[in-house]
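Quick question about two entries, pasted in order.
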Amino acid sequence: MKVVKIFLGLFFFLLTAGLVLGGAGFYWAAQEINKPGAFDKPVEIIIAPGSSITGIAEQLSYIGAVEHPLLFRLAGRYTGQASRLKAGEYELPAHASIRELLNLFESGKTVQRKVTLREGLTNHEIRMALAEKGDLKQVEAPMNAEGIYLPETYSYTREESTADILKRMEQAMDQVFAELWDSRAADLPLKNKVEVLTLASIVEKETGQKEERARVAGVFINRLNRGMPLQSDPTVIYALNLGEHQNEGQGPLGRRLLKKDLAFDSPYNTYVYSGLPPGPIANPGRASIEAVLNPERHEFLYFVADGTGGHVFAATLEEHNRNVAKWRAIRANGGD
């Protein structure tokens, strides 16, 4: 009986000690999980796709963001967050606790690095725009043909380069074109991707009005069907500078287009040569590609600026000449 009492006493002692130690350990862990981190300034970290909580804990320990990586792992598993941590680039706030880090990785609130490349930029202008992004790795990479880069807003991480953005732009254009090509109108005088992007780039440069794109595209389709030269001013500008626009407040040529420019001998000059130019004159956006593949059906063959940012359209040369005269009067009176 005495032995039983001894064993029972020892058992209850160990149980009590275990509970006390467990409680103390739990209290310590709770304190440590909520304790401010030691690093005194924001730290950037990239969590790779597929990273386990063990791998993340080791990353955090290596940069000094957590003192006890095992505790980070245990806390993540205890809260159930271990399986919900998202990949991406994060900025860890100074003195962030383990709890705050787990919440941040679960939220997926990554660093937002973005570059917006607007519709109608030439390759040269895209290259210049990317060069201005100081947090994007600058890599000397030759650009492919004009017109194959989809203008859009692209997010990136500090590990990515200008070459990565260009590759994504090209892949995005392939995807958009494949999607739109299948829903194109019948009987278009456009045989392939290059021809579509070429005409879309002209439409992009001719009008910034969303509601006009399909109508402008219809004018050029009508001209192509009749064998008429497109007579597009932006093609002459491209012929003169091959897309290397300076855009220093004086337009892409640094001056107005002159009448003598219309006779400049270049296959891109659609006043001199009928049909499409040999390739795009800029990088068109999705809306202009859609407009070319599904143009407005009408009888218009001409258009000219109306002085309000849009255009006025005409089916006959006589009507067009009257519209041109009105435009010249507007410009003579100080219109843009």
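Here is the second entry:
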Amino acid sequence: MSLPIWILIFVGALVVLLKASDWFIAAAEKIGLSLGIPAFIVGVTIVAAGTSLPELVTSIYSVLENSSEIVVGNVVGSNITNILLVLGLTAIVGKKIIIDFDIMNIDMPLFVGSAFLLYFCIYDNHFSKLEALICLIGLFIFLAYTFGADKEEKDEDAEDVTLDWKVFVTLLLGAIGIKFGAEWTVKSIIEISNQLNIAKEAIALSAVAFGTSLPEIIVSVKAARKGKPEIAIGNVLGSNIFNTFAVMGIPGLLGVLAIPENVTQFSLPLMMAASFLFLIMMITKKISNWEGYILILFYVIFIGELFL
């Protein structure tokens, strides 16, 4: 098929992937809130994992299609996009993000630790099965801590959430849509990169990372508008940790992941710099409007340098 057709397939598959993810997230969030899970815990686990589903499923299909270089591009690109673009837009829309809970106790150390783990796992352009297993152990520790913390706290909105059969049907339809959307997204990436002679990881770092981060953008911006910054911050924290541990770990056990040099030489150091910038902002427990614009500016520079 011609290039324009494959571009249309890419856009259509990405739309299906994101819409199906939205259904899945909405159903999973209702289930979590109905169980009385606190809002921040919902954001950092259920919503974060749900919004990272596009990255996970596309990465799995990338390994199965022998295009594993898409995986690391997807993870590093999504982590950069989450910090620079998602947080930036959230701060701009919400005017200011103010955190009133102790995020520096465990959550930020886990976030920074996951970034360091990713760096040391792939800086040598190699990702072994042992390193994939270590990532999954990190995911287990993260989930065990998160669900164990504040387990007696109840969310104020939990009593207003009721479950019926439609929630579970939505969950199932979302999962099916994610499967087919991810499959055709990966296939179109392969064809577009071949016809344009562009590295697959470059498309993954930019177009795919942006597309699969749209759920994070939507969830975080909506949370900012509603005056719930804990959902937005928890979403970015959880998504990046989930990307590092699960989106690298699971595909890493399914096959050998190719780690391109242009990722480790440029995008990976930028991801670490963005992570430290996020850490510094969280020390003050607030992100101002002008800091949001600076984050957006850094993201634009990242995309420009990526293709230049």
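Reply: Strands lie at 97-98, 286-287. The chain has one domain: 3-307. Hope that helps.
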